[in-house]
Amino acid sequence: MIDALFGSKTRVKLLHLFLNNPDRAFYVREITRKIDEQINSVRRELANMLSIGIIKSENSNNRLYYEVNQDYTHYAPLRAIFANSELASEAVQAVDGNDWAKRFKALGDVRVALLSGQLVHGSTSDVDVVLAGSINKTQAKKFIKELEDDENKSLNYTVMSYEDFYYRLSIKDRFVTSIIGGKHTVLADSEQILSD
């Protein structure tokens, strides 16, 4: 139904991706993987969306990155449609082919999960993944290896107990504040401690 309203399934998936990740930029191949659509239709829709102004592009490390233009005239109403509809949660799972929730289950009780560094466009952090909770370290290593294979990058990560993370956050520990003070993506925050 929403596909008909917005013209194409690819466009709807792209809108879901960009509007549910407002502080993240993606490159074309990453987008095609995440939304599971053909590269030609993705390129065509990206060109349309660029000409309308809903997204913007930037060259970085010999890659063209795309992200939502938060200054776009209709950004707020579009975000309301795509972030609050029932379809949004389905689309986030479909869009993020990795299905984070399922992947985290294998690790144990992941209460906080953050991406930064190489995994978030514009981040200057040296740490790429932070996991906090009751986490199986062997499974965490396996998860990071899969992520490295997906991203074709060597990643720096840290695993800690939730209590340690919460304590570091409460005393404004330099390590934690350097990550959450910069560009990052929150994948899990079960206690909503990062929403302030």
Your description of this structure?
The chain is α+β, with helices and mostly antiparallel strands and 196 residues long. The protein folds into 2 domains: 2-95, Arc Repressor Mutant, subunit A (Orthogonal Bundle); 100-189, no CATH class. The chain is built from 10 helices and 7 strands. It has helices spanning 2-6, 9-19, 28-35, 39-52, 75-84, 86-95, 100-105, 137-151, 162-170, 174-180; strands at residues 26-27, 55-60, 63-68, 108-115, 129-135, 157-160, 185-189. The protein has a 4-stranded mixed β-sheet. A 3-stranded antiparallel β-sheet has the order 1-3-2. Helix 2 crosses helix 6 (86-95) and helix 5 (75-84) packs across helix 6. The longest helix is centred in the C-terminal third of the chain and has 15 residues, at 137-151. It is globular.
Number of domains as seen in the coordinates: 2
Number of strands: 7
Low-confidence stretches: 84-98
Main CATH class of the largest domain? Mainly Alpha
